Structures
1.
Amino acid sequence: MSAVVTEHDDHHEHDHDHGPSKGLLRWLITTNHKDIGTLYLLFALAMFFVGGAMALVIRAELFEPGLQFVQPQFFNSMTTMHALVMVFGAVMPAFVGLANWMIPMMIGAPDMALPRMNNMSFWLLVAGVLMLASTLFMEGGAPASGWTLYPPLVLQTGAALPFAIFSVHLLGISSIMGAINIIATIFNMRAPAMTLMKMPLFVWTWLITAFLLIAIMPVFAGAVTMLLTDRFFGTSFFDAAGGGDPVLYQHIFWFFGHPEVYVMILPTFGVASTIIPVFARKPLFGYSSMVYATAAIAFLSFIVWAHHMFTVGMPIAGELYFMYATMLIAIPTGVKVFNWTATMWKGSMTFETPMLFSIAFVVLFTMGGFTGLMMSVAPSDFQYHDTYFIVAHFHYTLVPASIFILMAAGYFWLPKWTGHMYDEKIGKLHFWLSAISVNILFFPQHFLGLAGMPRRIPDYAVQFADWNMVSSIGAFIFGFSQLLFLWIVVKTIKGGTGEVVTDEVWEDASKHGLEWTLPSPPPYHTFTTPPEIVPTEHF
Amino acid sequence: MSTTAYYIPHKATWPIIGTGGLMLTLAGFANFLNGSSIGSTMMVMGFMTFIVMLAGWFSLQATESESGMYSTQVGISYRMGMMWFIFSEIMFFAVFFGTLWYTRNLSVPWLGGLGDGPGRSSHLLWENFTAQWPTNGPGEIGGEFEPMGAWGLPLLNTLILLTSGVTCTWAHHGLLAQKRDQLIKGLIATVALGFMFVAFQAIEYHEAYTEMGLTLGSGIYGSTFFMLTGFHGFHVCVGAIILSVVLFRSWRGHFKPENHFAFEAAAWYWHFVDVVWLGLFVFVYLL
Amino acid sequence: MKKAKQLIACVILMAMSLESAQAAYDLNLKQGVTQISHDVYDLHMLILWICVFIGIAVFGAMFYSIYYHRKSRGHVASQFHESTKIEILWTIIPTLILVGMAIPATKTMMELNDVQDADMSIKVTGWQWKWEYEYLDTGVHFFSSLDEASNRARQLGSGIDPRSVPHYLLNVDNPLVIPVKKKIRFLFTAADVLHSWWVPDLGWKKDTIPGFINEAWTYVEKPGTYRGQCTELCGKDHGFMPIVVIAMEQVDYDNWVAEQKGLVAETNAAAEKEWSKDELIAKGESVYQNNCASCHMADGAGMAGAFPALSGSKLVNGDINSQIDLVYKGKGMMPAFGQMLSEVDFAAVITYTRNALGNAVGDSVQPSAIKSLKSSAPAQNDDKDEDDKDEGNT
């Protein structure tokens, strides 16, 4: 009953030596969900700094009107690569890393359902990002058409084009494999007592995210495949002369792209719903409505894509339909925000770093949601579209939302992962620096957009100078503050503050999740037999 | 095998080899498209690595399965994996069906001055163009061509694929009823029909290119026609190869009525390919 | 948190003070100069206020709870975690608010879409990186690109302070001129990649799609100069293709049209005449600097890895017809200049590159040769006669 069946590559004997291989090889061939989770998280952190450096190139150039540092073409490559690296290299992998680490621990499983494929999905991610990064050094430069890769502009890319397209294919295969694995794990590996409606919300949100990923990554792959054939094999998908339409690409892209942004935000919701109850010392308010709201958001994400394209010239019926459908998203999203507020209401709150980041997330994400609501109104969007207003909007929903929650997750679970406590003082310093500078960075961009500054321009008219300077100052403070996080992570892995970390880590945390019943750090193989109890928080 | 004990494989080397192979293949293809001379060599090397990986990984799985290492739970994980993989494939084909729908119902009529939105005046750019299907667009890209009819080879191919679906199921019944002879005969028939389909498809393409002036470059009709049928044909090839492997394993005495995931996966995949073809036959050839 | 709260307070204050103090600091959307732009502004303000109101309620509750329900104040946690009633309530109220928003939004959307009964039509074509304007009723036709002062100042390390340039990056050589109090229909298309035509004061933007025509309309109340920019990433110089619209009284507009027609005649005459090589080279230099130097550099050295050098280039020093062909049709990132340049400018710049920038081929091409090339290539230019003046301009 208690045996874990294991095997080694070459011989098939039952083996009870569960330790990892030694040295570098361990990481190349590991099938352990914690090892792979760690790889994902560290890779994401590295890419966060690479993408961040690109953002700083952008903000340095925009510090003052006039061109000071880079040529416009390189500037465009930077905006394009910044987005691609952040989306596919940092945020998505970071959440997959969290899923790998936490889902088996949260549902009482020994590992992911398909461990070998798990290894492959990580290394395919690395391969894809490497291939993408290699385009920076190619003749004609990296793709400079924006992360959306709109034709016909993207077809003017030089040698980088096929590499960028194939990197999308690799990233797509990696994401699909990862998502399949997560679905199989959640459906098939839960401890017997862990019924679906007892699962932690992080698991729920990831389950739904995984469905989104499987549905959309092939769509993106198909779209870029058509770019490839249009450029190299003479097809006319996006060429009016042959009967195609450049706008068709946009429809396909955003059919992928809109759910894609929810791929980055739904797990964020899940982590926030995990952290807030712990520090409010109160069960999550409206658990089941949270689950339904997540599902509703996921469903709506498939039928609203063309709100990214209000100005492309659709028939009026299309404009109106997409406007109404988009407005609906506000309802389930609102329910979530209200539920988080109600969870805090009459709690007994303390404000450790993870909680601070989570509260900042609720507030600042809601502000991003507000601007989203404003843009759902098609006639107003005719003014906002492709200005800094939307840059401000989606950065509010990604940086002080997804990124902040990733930080929160880091602080929340690092003691569990490493068995060491992080330095709370520096953690708080990191939070306050980030929370203040992120607003200095992005809030003025609302003003810039409304005043008429288009996005993706390397230089601007002088009336935009003041707010751009403010924004750039915020960007540099924000960027350099993140080095504190790097320092904390390294120090915590090496031993942290020396404080003894209990299994629970946080006061009464074991009421809130199975992972807090395990030792800190947890053993290499978590549950060798299914645990029989689950926390009964919700009932 | 007890259902409550967990199964955990360790230290897999095939995934990293496969990743390397796939990356080398794609980097090679990209270099090839850019006209670089090392491209094709890289591609061949990468693809060979990839094939070695597939062979190695799958034979490892087969051996493990036959030695009874997989619990029911593992079997369920594999089935879920295959199911969702097929779902992702459905979404991939959906893109091209969607493209066909969009061009036929929106962009081509707009170019011909029909409908609301861009249809109100786009025809001013293409004065002599009348919206119709099939078309190679107002620029008559790729020159004159003859569209592919439905009632010759395509109909025959439909019958072939449908029959192969039946033989595949017949083989499955054989497997379940321990009739190994029926299993092997059914699989041989399925594989043979699969490759026959591919051969007819090749003949059809040859005719299109040499006699009908219909190529991948024949405007939007050529693009959608070859993209849809091409990707489908590729999937038929893959499916037939998978079934060949299953056939080979059946010969070696693999699979039991209660443990034959590989057979099921191959059969599901084959039925998926079958259904996609029905969609193609209706939307690409017939309508 | 505090910071965020302050910022929210800040926005509210700004929103309130805006109507009076718009000139000093542009913080809010422009009200614009058309009925539509006012409608859009009202919609914008309506929804902004709804958001502010909801924000105050939600964040108010949250901050109240953060202050009073904290452990350090000894607050003991309640354990409630469900209330179907309240869940239903906060689903229904937002739904009603949304319906309230959708009604005026739909109305404005319908108005924006109504391009019928226009007094005149202008076809706008986006090019990398300039705008082409074609007055369909009068045959006036020209290109509009970034003015020279901005263009000089915006080069990397130009040493020119952008603040010293009037309307830096928002000024063009040939502005679009329209009459006031006329319903003007715009037909948008593009020649190469996607662009988007946006003048904030008119209240909308519209993408230009190669091979398709999008429509929009405007009705400007008062004369003035209204500036905007391309808002769809269109390559290297996306940030450098501004739009300037000058709205005039009808009389001034009529005079302007007559003047433009004179210019057309002049250009046509110039294309007929025989030019000497030196004249072409002299003319070619300024054409080169305005159209080619931003990629191939002022001295023709190009940019390694991105834009080929023209000095010593095989193509420039080879057969003149293949050079003309490439410049005419474009290739990859190189725009097709065939329709963009006048015959004279085209011939001049070809001749210039072959006899300057370190090249000395010695030959030249006449504008008349380019003219015959143009008439044989499929062009969508106005081939209207000079006689049907003033028609449709009433």
Note: The mean pLDDT of chain B is 92.
2.
Amino acid sequence: MSVTQTRTNATGPTASAKCWSCQAVATGAHFCAACGKIQALPAGADYFAFFGLPQKLTLDPAALEAQFHKLSWKLHPDNFVRASEFERNLSLERSSELNDAYRTLREPIARIEYLLLHLGLRKEGTTRQQAPPELLEEVFELNESLDELREARAEGGDTAALRERLAEAQQNFLQKLEDVDAELAAVAREWDAALDSGAGESQRSPLLARMNEILNRRSYIRNLVAGVQKELTEV
Amino acid sequence: MGRVVGIDLGTTFSLIAHMDPQTGAPKCIPGPYGSNLCPSVVSVDPDGKIIVGEPARERLLTQPDRTIYSVKRLMGRGVADVQDELKLFPFRIDPESRNVIRVRLGDKLFTPPEISAFILRELKSWAEKYFGEPVERAVITVPAYFNDAQRQATKDAGRLAGLEVLRLVNEPTAAALAYGLHKQKRGRVAVYDFGGGTFDISILKLISTDEGEIYQVLSTNGDTHLGGDDIDNAMMKVAREAIAREPLGKSHLPGEAVQQLRKELIRAKHELSGSDRTSVALSMAPAHIDLAIDRSGFEDLIRPIVARTMQPVKLALADAKLTPKEIDEVVLVGGSTRIPLVRKTVSDYFERPPHCELDPDEVVALGAAVQADILETGVKTMLLLDVTPLSLGMETMGGVVAKIIPRNSTIPASAQELFTTGVENQTGIDVHVLQGERELAKDCRSLARFQLRVPPGPAGLARIEVKFLIDANGILQVAARDLRSGQQHTIEVQPSYGLNDEEVERMLEESIEFAEQDFAERQMIEARTEADAILHATEKTLAEPRAAGIAASELSADERRAITESVAQLKAAVASTDYKLVRQRIDELNQATMRLAEIIMNSALQTALEGKRLEEV
């Protein structure tokens, strides 16, 4: 591992409105239209813009992959081994952004999370830990079963019946996860339609809020399922 | 700029290759013994001379305490990591060493990157001799599953050997590159790389685009401590148990006997790839052994080791979201894939015969040469997209790791984290960076710790953005920026394992001394050769009756004494290590014998001319 002191930064003040090499007006494109030199990342750009895409949540995976490969040919550090250190750093910055963007956009859920994060509606790593009201009863039952299993295991008792009950509960929650995903996809389609029709802020922001709420619920259920899985695999 | 070479710095053997401009195909460069394989063995003479490769391997038997093999196993590791290793390998680790291991060879201490640098320097000299020009830039391969510290150690070794390391390439990926050129494959490829000390599995997708071929690694997994060495160790254990049953067998085995036994067992292992039975007979006091080994007994012994390779295979496939049936091609790499049981295990699992057309020992070096060529001439027809094998994370509250770059992310990859203060007037924020898949920091590999220094102020006021970036070598770079001032933020990183910059600098200086020493040695050899020739000629001349007669009659007593003295002084100089002195004494002897040589020449000319008519001359 090494520390770098000279690197420019994605959102840094170093990203200027002019080409660093020929001073032509920068358009935010990967390369300067005038001199062809690789450009610094402009401030505030998002992963969608990096791929030249609108902020829509339905994407053709094959087209995205093809574009990823096309950009890889141009931006990869292998192309810049003999370039100046400055250009090598720009290539490193652009190609890492490309890979980060592709990794995020190719996964439907990660794509939605990113959009909300980018628009400031979601904070990274924060998930609400309260149970959604409609699940309260089932969560309470599940926790009880989990306690019983731990107890039975500590006392060396028979756990087969408990395990079966937990596995059933897990199935139930996995089904809920699928439902949540379907719900999320439906709102995502609404968002895309709103963008297509040029809908204003007042129509768009409730959609974002709904997606945020569904994502919180999703993350809660996922943690629940993972927790059960952990207990079930423990001997 | 000179050429870029590809180097496979292996546990057991190392190789150097280049792209042959005539054939357009990669080619290994042979060493002075005719083989392309340089045993990764280093030996240090009492006078400090470094011996590498085949001659060093011979010293494993004669001077085991001055000789080291399998040093790759120690790269980028701390003393606590290698305790298991030490039970099986006769490494002599300096008890003072902690996060960088120091190995004792004779009376000197060396770090693993320094020892690896000796191997790289040897390979570099092979290439320089082959090309007749200096070689300064290289692509070096590393096991795909190497962590940040192991990669950094490899890069340090390159630097210490006087090589600019343009790229570290993962070994299975390099193999795929070599195979791709060879066969123009398409689809999904699994590369099963079972070498001397490490095991890697990589799943790749080969894509044809308008621009050319893309080799995209989908996932990789492995075990940096699983290889042919483990098979050797299992055989050693059986053999030593057999010895222990002998009378006197319980007594301590001398290092020479252990090495001799290991050598014999490795020979037997190789033989069993081709034949059904072999035997090992060794008589070296107090050890005596006469073992008959058959293929099925050998397979029973190594089955658990081979089985250990299949867990990473399954994990890599799961990460690539593929089933074994969806793999179109399987490529075998590494010497251990010559073992029939390994081949059978792999072909049974993937339900298809694996490829092994290219020499499994050479294929990684050949692929490194392909990548070297890409970097030298620019991306034209092939592009390699590799991944980071391990997740990158940060320690958070309660010692839990928060993952910021997941494993199998295409590299370069990055993540940004925002840090702020939690209490008023806090002056520093501690950051602990880790690599690994486990939930708790204590179970992951610590990469580095650093502190972000902030001016005292209210809690939450400071805003420092840290950018973590894994470069195309799989090595982490960290940069921090103060968002409030927009200024670059200075951080002092203490690497958890490996050398810091000052240590590398100091070693670099020492390695230049080594290079000077190498130069002096070559000069000495040449001067000695010349001195021997002139001494031989002088003595031969003086022993000849006619010349001796001339010397006695034509030279003064002073002149005769000058010759005898010069001969004696040159002989004394040859016994020293000062090549400049030898050169000076050669000149002096030449001066002293000049008049004698002239007289003899003239007299020889006269003799030759006598009896010949003028017109014949």
Note: Chain B is about 40% helix and 25% strand.
3.
Amino acid sequence: MIENLYFYLPQIIIGTIVGLFTAIIGIFVILRKTIFMGVTLSQSITVAIIITLLLDLHFEGLVHFLAMILFLPIYLLHNKVINKDALLASGFVFFAALGQILTTIGANVQNHIVAAYFGNILFLSEKEWFNIVIPIILISIILWIFYRWFLAISFDQEYAYIANLPVNLIETLYFLVLSATLSLSIYFMGSFYSIAHLIIPGIIALQISRSMKSTFIIAILISVFSTIVGFIISLMEINIANTKFNLPTSSTIILVLSLNFVFLLFKKFTK
Amino acid sequence: MAVEKQTLIELSGVSIGYSNHRLIENINLTIQKGEKILLLGSNGSGKTTLLKVIAKLKKPIAGNISYNYKILSYVPQSKKIDHFPISMQNALRLYYPLFYPKQKQNQEIEAVLKQMNLWEKRNLLLSECSGGELQRVYLARALLRNPEILLLDEPLNAIDITSKQNFLSILDEMYQHLNCTIIMTSHDLSEKILNFFNKKLYIDHHTLNIIGGN
């Protein structure tokens, strides 16, 4: 197991980094009450990944670009329709159905489904690991500069207009950061991992923290802890009735993350 | 000595609402520097929409508006904040320009929180504030911009009598200090409130009526 751990160290580091960035962005998503939008966006990114897999042009930049084009009609319409949730739900099922149809069209269907929904970090090449560097640097810079204004539009967008903040620019940057982070996260770890990291660490942190700073720190710690523990468990060989097998990485991490949430609920209800 | 009146906003033939449902029609109104205006009307009559049109947050569906002010600020209706772990003083920092010096921010926030009698509670989370405290935080946030026009949307709703009196005396103090124009919506017709304002507007049957002036 230790040798495995050493062998998979780069993947563990990458999984941890994309997880923690998704958790950070997730806090804004929760504060802005746009969880459904984040989840629908993640489905459009999943479709973009399937398209790039089918075309054998699987690189992160193209995934992000395609996902933005796919999601653009929903993004432009969501503030203009009477029922936002209905539009997002329709988008969600549309992208889920489109993803399934596309994987059926392509050869090697099973692998495509597994890669898009559960990630395939353990099988990505060394060259692909470095796809993370530039997006993460750009996301970090935007977050560092615009952190306060992202909070401002999350807290009271109308007042941001009154205070003459460049709300449209902030909104665009926020959407770019959200979609770039999700693209990265889904590209490496899969759609379910990304949705789980987008929501669970932030929800837990917001329940127990008393400042924005501690909210971000707690969410990061939960994300990092769950990713590392989940990775380690998935690398352990399990032997049941003389059958040896390993648990899938992304799903194990999601289970650890969910257990944190269950633990928090248990603590709250037994207080 | 005659004081020269400066027109800050002029609405001519303005209608507000939605294309299929007009809230107020044909508004002709001049808002001048230093006026204290009370906007009255029943629920859903268009008070908040009119404030938003004045604040450029909404467009009118007909008519012309000329804006001659530089800085306007807004105190929204008080909403319960239950999911945002942010303290009073940190909430006031959010709307500063990106590279505004931190030391200057601190000085301004300290001054305005002291003016609102909230300095001792500066680290209290907004979710733990009472209705009256939350209104004063919003007023503090609005004052940080040194506005020429201050819009207040039903600030006295859901606060007790003591907090109302406290809020009005702070508003009066602020008015004396800044000499800004105040436009406030309210349902409250108590004498103290009516006496505070020198112009009263009443929305009735989709029409804006002036029921008292200087």
Note: The first strand of chain A starts at residue 238 and ends at 240.
4.
Amino acid sequence: MERDQAPSLDALAAALARARPAGFRDLFLERVADTVCHIERGNIVARHAILREGGAVRREGTHYSADGLTRVTLARLLDVPGRTLPTLGTPPHPVPPDLAPLVAELPETCESVRWRWRWAAVVRGGRAVTLRRPQLLEVTLVNGRRSLATFPRPLGWRPPEALPPGRASAPVGPARALLAPAAAAVLLHELLGHTLEGDFLVSGTSPLARLWGKRLLALPLDVIDDPTRFDLPGAFDTDDEGYPGQPRPLLAAGTLIGALCDEASAATLGVQPGNARRAGVHAPPRPRLSNLIVTNAWPEDPPREGATIEVESVSAGSLDPLSELLELGVRSGWRLQRGRRASRLHPFTLVGRVDRVRAGLLGAFGTPQESGEPGWCGKAGEVVPAGAVAPWLLVEGMEVR
Amino acid sequence: MRPQFADVLPALLRAADELARHRCRFETFAKVGETVVRRTGHSGNQERQHLLEVGVGCRVVVAGKVGFGAAAGSHAAAGREAARLARENLLPGPDPLPPARLLGATAVPGLPEAGGEEAREGFLKALEKGFAREGRGLLLREVRMLDGCSTASILTGEGFTARAPACGCAIEVLIAAGEGPQRLFHRAARSLADLDPDAFVRQACETSRLTSRGSAASGGLTDVLLAPAVAAPLVEALGAAIIEDTLHTGAREPRIAKAWCLVDERSGPSGLLPLPFDGEGVASRPLTLLADGRLQERCGCWADTHQRGMGAGGAVRSTYVAPPKSGPANVVLHAIPARSPAELLQMMEQGCYLAIPAGRLRREPESGRFSLRAGAVSVRHGRFAAAHPIVELRGSLRRLLAGLVAAGNDPASFSLSCAVTVPTLLLRGLEVA
């Protein structure tokens, strides 16, 4: 588009400072480019390209958002005359990368590959901040298994594997489960991520709301949320309210020491903001996880002899704050016998109450590994990319259903 | 609030102009939609959102190659970008555009009167008043309201042009009892005027109390009575599996109970979302999915169905950012004969009444099996016997097809991935755990 020339965000910030829209809090601008390749038997059979751009304004207690970044659109959002605003210059959508060489490396069971580029800026308090995020690459297999990574692909990145079907049913009832890093990442994301989001803590819906400064896990885990890890999908240098993104310690030796906060919940909880994220221009910023990182674990190999099942990959995880039930949809796993993998299991569900799972984390093993899962994190129907670095985990207190 | 066709005209026309110059078959699809969202928490905190979504998507066919591109915005540049992207992403493939002879628009019921902010405010006040009256011992944790209108427009290289205005609203309330999990109640309608806040709140409070405390259910195969809110996601999944042809019926033809009369009422008047044409411009008509104990029509979007000798007319397209795909739009389960819930309870005699879902429907795409958690009550001799705050309903779509015995006279509408209108259902032999 012609107007994609030199950035003019400072001019826009100055114009807003002059125009003083009633009840104005901030203006969020976004441009997104998506390319999706649909794949059949290793060949790209369709390619869809989508360019989106839009603006969102928080004013007078309402979040107004609209597609398009013309002066007319912004003036309507801000409720100011169009002539008071400069023509906006934003960076052009980049030329998408050639994904064919990547597709050639993927298993035949690959269904689609998506590349995403995103540019965003926040204008508030008379100044404009551009937000930096990594480009993303999502690979989806026909069985629904998904892996999200940054693009260009980080060193050592491996495509998700197509897993063979199960041969036996998981034994229903209480289980001692050994979770591989990809599965452990989802468990920790549900157990510690959503429960430490500021809005849940303020409203009292989080089961951890009254445990500040208390020992949360018997296991002495150190856990941080780190948006500055630009090799992981949840990275950002500045959050979607314009605050700098910084590593935030959440647990130290199993004790709760931090929370994930946007501006509003930070004010209530008396901590720093910097964790506000938007799922897109039409979603208001909310406190969210970025990259959940476990920084310590025992160096030993994962102890299969101490577990009854091994969970290799999960299709979904959820935490119902209402019933405090944590649920993992296990896509693939093994029944273990005398420390060995005995038979591959059909998909099953692992369920446990948050307090029992907290008490039931028995050990963290091996070097924590980056994981393509959970990949996308949903909250109130709004989805943001999330990364994780997790070790193997041995857990009891959950049951197979 | 009512987005106008004219709002998106520059983008739509520019996209068509760009593509017409290149001697290709094409279709441009534009959508403009305006949505108001309100959330009110129990401590009085309010969140208000006002969304305007607008953009254009193009499908192009040139010399055996097919492309798709989309761009946000209502201005001409957005149309030009969408056209450019579609042409730059051409890959060999069969022509997915339906032939011009299939395109058309069916007359559908007009839009209800737009209520605006006053109607929304009035509805929320009535809801709060109703809760103050009915909700003793319960806490109204959150009220969510979504009210929106849209206009979809289509223009093809062969000169077909049509537009489809639509509107709808959804209400959700989150209620906490002194014990047990909180409950989320959901209803949808074409307009707020079609929803009765008093009846909705009364039913929500009764259900919350009924299922708030109790014991675990004894597991096993049993007869189940599904309240409309529990039946809706199952019927949605069934409708989608039929239209997407992923029913997993195995080698044998599935046994289908005679009580099923499931119709995708695309042109209305039943259900929530009557539209004059489907997601790719094929004139709307009712698609009968299940009736008389057998699978009836199997239709999808043209690209999926024409090579298999199946009908077009089953395309859906909720947004301009993706091409149309096969799927249900406005699923309605017609009860023939329609019985009162009390009559259904008597018919069941012994079993489990699932009153309110407690989470999403989980499906295993490879096997067709599903599980759904719900708040429930055991039934003995046609009467409620014991409450169970959480049970899990398990089964397969095949078992669902075979198990329907009767349906109620209490249809309710829900806005899921498609519109679903369903009454209370009585089914034999599903697993409750």
Note: The first strand of chain A starts at residue 24 and ends at 40.
